[in-house]
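Discussion board: Methods & Data

I've been asked by a reviewer to show the raw model output for two of the constructs in my manuscript, not just the figures. I'm not sure how much to include, so I'm pasting the format here to get opinions. Each protein appears as its amino acid sequence followed by a line of discrete structure tokens. Is this the kind of thing reviewers expect to see in a supplement, or should I convert it first? Here is construct A:
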Amino acid sequence: MVGSVWAALGLALTCVSALSLISPAWLETPTFSFGILAYCSWPPGDSWNQSCETFRSLQEIPDFAWKVSAVMLLGGWLLLAFNAILLLSWALAPKGLCPRRGSGPMPGVQAAAAAATIGGLLIFPISLASPFAKEACETSSLYHGGKCQLGWGYVTAIFNAVLSSLLPVIWWPRETKARGRVIVFSSDSERVILVPEASK
């Protein structure tokens, strides 16, 4: 049961992360918006008539910091997707097939995905000093959006990074000592395991 919840959370984080990555609404003006992989423009007062373009390769991305951010964010998403697939396979596999469910590299993979995503989110605002961003946001500079406002894509990516960084902390098995025995609380089982403490 608990493994299924973790698999669902991992899958949800992966989907939300993908949605924020493809969103062109990271930074917005009244007639223009751009994100990591796409940008859109529209006539004033007619936001339903958008014309959008995507960056098809790293060479098309206008700034080096933007490229580094895109690589880190895509790497974080790939790690998140890998983690979700493994969690889903462990949740669906019979208990006898995977006796050590929940132990293993999952919290580490999740933490690496969160670190890559946070790094990419922190590097992206450096690209506000690029000619592309200065043209779109007018008075933008390093970590200053100028006339651009945060869009839902960037906020969603930040929210996803926070959740991704909190889940590995919750996932790690917790141990406590009680009268000469070690009690291991495993997040993927519904029983308490008493392990005799080794003599010193």
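Construct B, same format:
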Amino acid sequence: MDKLYKISDNMVLGLNGDVGDMNQFNQFITSNLGLYKLRNNYQLDTPAVAHFIRKNLSDVLGAGNPYYLNLLVASYDEQSGPKLYTIDWLASCHKMQFAAHGLGGIFALSIMDRYYNLDLTESEAHKVMLMCVREMQQRLLINLPNFRVKTVSRLGVKTLPDINSTMWSQKE
């Protein structure tokens, strides 16, 4: 299942959580951002989108019917460059250099912490993601076979080859 949704030309929304909540919330966010762009002739920048998402998660949490979702909002703004926000189901929102959610995120964050730097090329970043997936598949009982990878740059959203266990079994 592709959990990375393109919500504008240079923005991706990554979701994990309940499948029904993911689909409904993605449609809600995408529709409202599209409506905003139609009414105002420009789209919201990344901090505004992150705040919009956080506000909506906070409202439904306060109403007692929360979305059980964790989100990553990744984008590239012409003026300020790349941005990444992480938002959890309790509506806390933080701007990050790198992030991961879920059970595997515990392992991925330690690898990203060690190998991340501002000068990573796309190829080097893909190798870091490969290390993260490999660690998850070795340590977790739940073994997901494929991981979708997308990048966001000034050129837009690009889908890279999926990461799966055959990628490192061929190299060993």
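Answer (T.O., handling editor elsewhere):
This is acceptable in a supplement if you add a one-line summary per construct. For B, something like: The two ends are 28 Å apart (CA to CA).
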